[in-house]
Every structure is written in structure tokens, then in C-alpha cells.
């Protein structure tokens, strides 16, 4: 299902990105509409797959996950069976917050959130015991300067 977004849809999406826990009344007031049309637009955008899962963003450091590593992976394996094992291993590891397959010299990049360097090492050891990896480079983030899930609508 394709949906054409107008300015009102974009305003609604911006409000949802800012705080999805807002009431329909609050969103309608912010976008200059009433509750029922806003609800209908959100429903249509959900049905079209534009609006997905709603969740809450937790403070990783407040919960003790103080280390964020970006893991660069090079592999010499490119067969479907290896890739399936690798993807299964990544999906099974809750420490992996993001995983991207890349073009260029690096095959994959992972964002891994753990309590400390020792916890990263445990993650690393578990990963390489599950799948053969040619080269791994782990980069520790010293400071998170910007992090957002908001799209520039």
C-alpha cells in the first residue's frame, strides 16, 4: 500500500517521533487539527508501514551499559550458509543494537552496547566461536555526541 504524505502527515510524524506517548488530543492540538482526522491519518500510515513499532528509549549508562563499541568486521566468507549463521548469531545477541552490511573494505559494522570492556570481550569470544571471521576491529566510543531515531521530515 502506497501513501502520499502531505504537510499534515509530516507534522503528525514529527510529533510522534518527538514523543509517541502523547495523547491524540495533544498531537491534534500541536498540528492544528482535531482528534479523529489525526487518528485516521496515523492508522493509514501504520497500515502503509510508515509508522512501525512504538517503544521507549532507555538510558544505557543509567542502566550500567557504559561501553559502546563499534565493531568493524571483515570476512573472507561470502557463502549463503556462512551469512545465515552470522545473521543468526547477531540476532541472538542482545548486545548488538545495530548491524549493517557495508559496501567497501569493511563487510559489516555493529553497534554493541555492554557494561564494560570485559563484557565486550565475552561478546567477542562468543561471536567468533559461532562464526569464522577474518578480521575484527573494535572501536570504543569515548563520548556520544548525538544519537537520534528522528528522521528529517
UniProtKB/TrEMBL annotation:
Q: Which InterPro entries does this entry report, sorted A to Z?
A: ArsR-like_HTH, AsnC-type_HTH_dom, Dimeric_a/b-barrel, Tscrpt_reg_AsnC-like, Tscrpt_reg_AsnC/Lrp_C, Tscrpt_reg_HTH_AsnC-type_CS, WH-like_DNA-bd_sf, WH_DNA-bd_sf
Gene Ontology biological process: regulation of DNA-templated transcription; response to amino acid
Q: What region holds the HTH asnC-type domain? A: 5-66
- Which SUPFAM superfamilies does this chain map to? Dimeric alpha+beta barrel (SSF54909), Winged helix' DNA-binding domain (SSF46785)
PROSITE patterns, per database record = HTH_ASNC_1, HTH_ASNC_2
- GO MF, one example: sequence-specific DNA binding
Q: Name one GO cellular component term.
A: cytosol
Keywords, A to Z, come to: DNA-binding, Transcription, Transcription regulation
Superkingdom of the source? Bacteria
Name of protein: Transcriptional regulator, AsnC family
Organism this protein belongs to: Tranquillimonas alkanivorans
